[in-house]
């Protein structure tokens, strides 16, 4: 069965891959025009459309008063565009002479019979497209279709491009700092990977990052995890809780979906330069526009060069990235976007931890500074080259059926050598820090394809959006790794360049993964009810082998059926209570000390909540409660080359979130998180004899603060002598967490303050020029981000200030 499904998936890839050539030979059909109109009031959106389409549109204020529109993105004829804009509004546009239209109220039964056209490029209802401000109204992350956030029966948050810019986020993890339920950078001030812990779950990997609807195919047993710079993103969607029904193997805490910048059919050119503390300097450019007179082909070319000294001594970060893309509208029903992402990180900066004795509290009068480097200048290096090639194809057959296919090939090469802390010497009066060595040369190849067929139809008065899909992914990681010893270092007076690397050993292994999945989802709209039903079957095969040991290959094959169900009721006043159930499934793909594959982790979640969107606005308030149960977690200790099962975990809590456009000038984002996570079964001890069972049932895992809250506000002056000035500020509180699973020592809580100031120099005659100043950790709070296994702790990010000048033309 798995082979048959795999063949069907790949066959679909070939068939759909040929479709653009067929479309080129087909008649162009009726003339269409490309639109990129942001969400807003229906009246404003219709006015923008009428101007761009060159038509006259007559209506009365009473017809459109208080009605919101998701905007319009994509290529449409005038009639198609009007049907899309008025879908669900109870209005229709009647043509008078081909260039003049009059809005009329539809009879109630006629409104129900209108076919939906909300299928173009996933972008309708700003589910993936660009938008102004901080408030998204739609998202595709929970359903793979454009669904209003207020009508989604699961917690979803969205970070927009403007919020990323206003807050000066330099990594994806930083961009999520004001999102409830999310702990970013649990491993401190490192920028090498985008670690995101959600609803208390953190497995030390970045396996919960998705890019343009497809899983980022890193391997959590290697250093070859893909990282995307936020400069290349249009938005970030965050789905809380299990999501295997659509995505297959995934974390129970949730996932982070990145959407890259896509080609625009109107000219856009922007360049920027950034300088900052810690020696930061960088330049970027973002060019886009049509390539033909008919605006059927558009390009986008985005590039970035960035460098920083980092806050840690003797460490640098360098990055050079280029992302070309082309979009082709073969006709009004068929489109294709081709993308590449090429990134070279010749210096990957710092990634290490220090003993709690010396980090959290003094040891013999010593406390590590925020700059301390325990490695060695003659050894430490991290180099990463990554590239990916992808496409998104869509073809609409008729008013009912639409097919989509997303594909990505990914390749990365990593070279790493590191001297790291291995505890203190046995002399309690000494500040000599023991060190060990690890290194590796890695190559990772992967590809993933997702085929979807969407059908929209009515059964009686119930509207169905049926999604059927089949996906396949394959990954191969080849690793040559090294280990050894280096001399200790005096933490009082560190000297570098004489580490004396010795006792070096080597290992070679291959790790492979294949996953095939089929899924079905039905979204049902029945009067004010919104029902969501989904089911998925997965076949996963993993293997792990040592290339230098004959017969060492260990394979594991698993199948899993997962599901999700949700129900929501949308009141006329904008209040929408909901309840949902969802499941997750994630093969560990690793072995224990006897080279036996560990059982896959499995998670289940119950979530209930209330969403509120005041009529006539895009403001959104969400309150949710949840409970997640996960079993068969795996963890790897720093000094071990195998994994251990760590029992079961239960997480339950409350999350509150608000995205509010208070006035035309003031935007506010706020959130609160309460997470009570604990081991629901006792686990093997890592601090005593291996295999010993200790009674830690009821204890909390590390890197899981119980409480977090955040608030960010941005004010844009639009009149008077301050016209053009923008000021923003926020605060983030992270409660205490535990140093160890035995809960013997706490990591103190901390509060971080951020600020920004910007000015539009177009107000003083420099059209298109904008300046922005960002300060993260404005008060330079010194803190420990978290501590993890064996009491290793991670320094928090010190104050950093950056100034950015951009020019749009």
From TrEMBL:
Main location per the UniProt record: membrane
Motif window: TonB C-terminal box: 792-809
Locations listed in the record: Cell outer membrane
Annotated signal sequence range: 1-25
Membrane topology note: Multi-pass membrane protein
Keywords, in A-Z order: Cell outer membrane, Ion transport, Iron, Iron transport, Membrane, Receptor, Signal, TonB box, Transmembrane, Transmembrane beta strand, Transport
Family, as annotated: Belongs to the TonB-dependent receptor family.
Protein's name according to its UniProt entry: TonB-dependent siderophore receptor
Source lineage: Bacteria, Pseudomonadati, Pseudomonadota, Gammaproteobacteria, Pseudomonadales
């Amino acid at each position: 069965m798995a082979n048959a499904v795999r063949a069907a998936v790949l066959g679909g890839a070939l068939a759909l891959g040929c479709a653009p050539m067929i479309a080129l030979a087909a008649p162009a059909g009726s003339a269409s025009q490309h639109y990129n109109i942001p969400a807003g009031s229906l009246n404003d959106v219709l006015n923008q459309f009428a101007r761009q389409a060159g038509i006259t549109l007559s209506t009365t204020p009473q017809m459109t008063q208080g009605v919101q529109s998701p905007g319009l993105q994509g290529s449409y004829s005038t009639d198609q565009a009007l049907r899309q804009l008025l879908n669900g509004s109870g209005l229709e546009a009647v043509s008078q002479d081909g260039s003049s239209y009059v809005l009329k109220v539809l009879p109630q039964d006629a409104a129900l019979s209108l076919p939906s056209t909300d299928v173009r490029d996933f972008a309708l209802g700003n589910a993936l497209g660009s938008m102004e401000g901080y408030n998204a109204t739609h998202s595709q992350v929970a359903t793979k279709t454009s669904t209003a956030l207020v009508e989604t029966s699961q917690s979803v948050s969205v970070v927009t491009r403007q919020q990323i810019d206003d807050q000066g986020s330099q990594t994806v993890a930083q961009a999520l700092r004001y999102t409830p339920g999310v702990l970013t950078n649990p491993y401190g001030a490192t920028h090498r990977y985008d670690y995101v812990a959600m609803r208390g779950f953190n497995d030390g990997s970045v396996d919960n990052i998705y890019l343009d609807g497809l899983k980022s195919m890193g391997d959590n047993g290697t250093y070859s995890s893909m990282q995307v710079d936020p400069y290349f993103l249009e938005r970030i969607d965050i789905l809380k809780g299990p999501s295997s029904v659509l995505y297959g193997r995934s974390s129970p805490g949730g996932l982070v979906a990145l959407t890259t910048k896509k080609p625009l059919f109107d000219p856009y050119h922007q360049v920027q330069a950034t300088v900052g503390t810690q020696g930061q300097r960088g330049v970027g450019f973002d060019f886009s526009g049509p390539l033909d007179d008919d605006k059927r082909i558009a390009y986008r070319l985005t590039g970035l060069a960035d460098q920083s000294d980092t806050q840690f001594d003797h460490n640098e970060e360098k990055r050079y990235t280029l992302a070309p893309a082309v979009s082709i509208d073969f006709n009004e029903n068929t489109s294709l976007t081709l993308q590449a992402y090429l990134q070279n990180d010749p210096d990957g900066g710092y990634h290490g931890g220090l003993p709690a004795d010396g980090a959290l509290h003094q040891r013999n009068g010593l406390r590590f500074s925020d700059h301390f480097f325990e490695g060695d200048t003659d050894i430490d290096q991290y180099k990463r080259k990554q590239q990916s090639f992808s496409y998104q194809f869509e073809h609409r057959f008729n008013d009912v059926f639409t097919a989509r296919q997303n594909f990505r090939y990914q390749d990365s090469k990593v070279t790493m050598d590191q001297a790291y802390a291995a505890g203190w010497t046995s002399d309690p009066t000494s500040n000599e820090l023991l060190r060990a060595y690890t290194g590796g040369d890695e190559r990772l190849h992967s590809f993933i394809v997702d085929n979807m067929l969407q059908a929209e139809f009515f059964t009686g008065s119930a509207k169905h959006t049926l999604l059927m899909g089949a996906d396949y992914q394959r990954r191969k990681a080849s690793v040559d790794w090294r280990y050894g010893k280096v001399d200790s270092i005096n933490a009082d007076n560190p000297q570098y360049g004489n580490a004396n690397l010795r006792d070096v050993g080597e290992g070679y292994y291959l790790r492979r993964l294949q996953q095939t999945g089929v899924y079905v989802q039905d979204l049902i709209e029945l009067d004010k009810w919104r029902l969501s039903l989904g089911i998925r079957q997965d076949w996963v095969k993993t293997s792990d082998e040592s290339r230098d040991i004959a017969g060492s290959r260990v394979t594991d094959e698993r199948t899993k059926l997962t599901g999700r169900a949700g129900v929501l009721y949308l009141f006329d006043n904008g209040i929408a209570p909901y309840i949902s159930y969802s499941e997750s499934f994630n093969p560990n793909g690793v072995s224990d000390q006897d080279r036996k594959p560990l059982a896959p982790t499995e998670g289940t979640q119950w979530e209930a909540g209330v969403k509120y969107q005041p009529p006539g606005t895009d403001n959104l308030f969400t309150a949710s409660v949840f409970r997640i149960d996960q079993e068969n977690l795996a963890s790897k200790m720093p000094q071990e080359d195998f994994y251990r099962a760590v029992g079961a975990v239960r997480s339950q809590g409350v999350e509150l979130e608000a995205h509010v456009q208070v006035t035309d000038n003031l935007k506010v984002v706020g959130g609160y998180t309460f997470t009570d996570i604990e081991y629901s079964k006792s686990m093997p001890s890592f601090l005593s004899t291996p295999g010993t069972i200790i009674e830690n049932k009821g204890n909390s895992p590390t890197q899981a603060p119980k409480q977090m809250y955040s608030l960010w506000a941005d004010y844009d002056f639009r009149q008077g002598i301050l016209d053009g000035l923008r000021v923003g500020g926020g605060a983030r509180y992270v409660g205490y967490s535990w140093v160890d699973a035995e809960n013997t020592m706490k990591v103190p809580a901390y509060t971080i303050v951020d600020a920004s100031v910007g000015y539009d120099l177009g107000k003083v005659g420099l059209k298109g020029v904008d300046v922005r100043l960002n300060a993260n950790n404005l008060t330079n709070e010194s803190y420990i981000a978290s501590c993890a296994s064996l009491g290793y702790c991670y320094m928090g990010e010190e104050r950093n200030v950056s100034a950015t000048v951009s020019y749009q033309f």
